[in-house]
Design goal:
28% of the residues lie in helices and 35% in strands. It is built from seven helices and eleven strands. The strands form two sheets. A seven-stranded mixed sheet has the order 3-2-1-4-5-11-10, with helices on both faces. Strands 6-7-8-9 form a four-stranded antiparallel sheet, covered by helices on one side. One of its GO terms (molecular function) is methyltransferase activity.
Length: 242
Amino acid sequence: MNAQAHYDNHLAAFYAWMTGNFDTKQQEQEAYFSNKHITPTGSAVAIDLGAGHGLQTISLANLGFTVYAVDFNQHLLSELNARAKGMTVRTILANIANAAQYTMNAELITCMGDTLTHLESVQQVNTLLGEWNSILPEGGKLVLSFRDLTQELEKEERFIPVRAEDERIHTCFLEYFPGFVRVFDMLMEKQNGQWIQKVSSYQKLRLGIEQVKIMLSAAGFVVQDHEVIQRMHYLVAVKRKD
């Protein structure tokens, strides 16, 4: 199952619950952007790719951007729209692999929360980095966050508890292959006194941090900042001047 089918048929229904308290997580993202001086300086337009239910989108709108939130899942975009009423936010139902659906005059592109690893191949990542560079003006910024999955977890380490409540438990299981990891999202829910298990899986690319930095440079970016936050790599890259 590809990432879109996995979200449409399984993960989107409990994604907001899985990620935890929205306000807390959103404020963390907004603080990150503020600390890295991600503020409007030109068109004041930002494109948030893989926007989900809006952690980055809401943060960027609060900082003064008009945000185009792109995601392939309507359920998540509907949640985002409900939170963004009255804000300078527009949603676009599209696969981020098709850059023609969101090409516009933007000074900032964000692709965060492991969205980069949802792409189908390293070549697709390379292609998109080049297309994102073409969208941005000189000095425009690209902000990425993703997990480096190149190091294999072993044995019981591959079972990752995500969140648990009295009537709902979410666990991930990882299966490693050359170039990608198969991620199994296992949800246990108590319904009418009975535990019901729902399982679905999809692939994530095993992108290394140094590999991504090299790809960014080849696409015309300079990495301005790199930070690791809760095992997630955060990169701020700037479009090079010709």
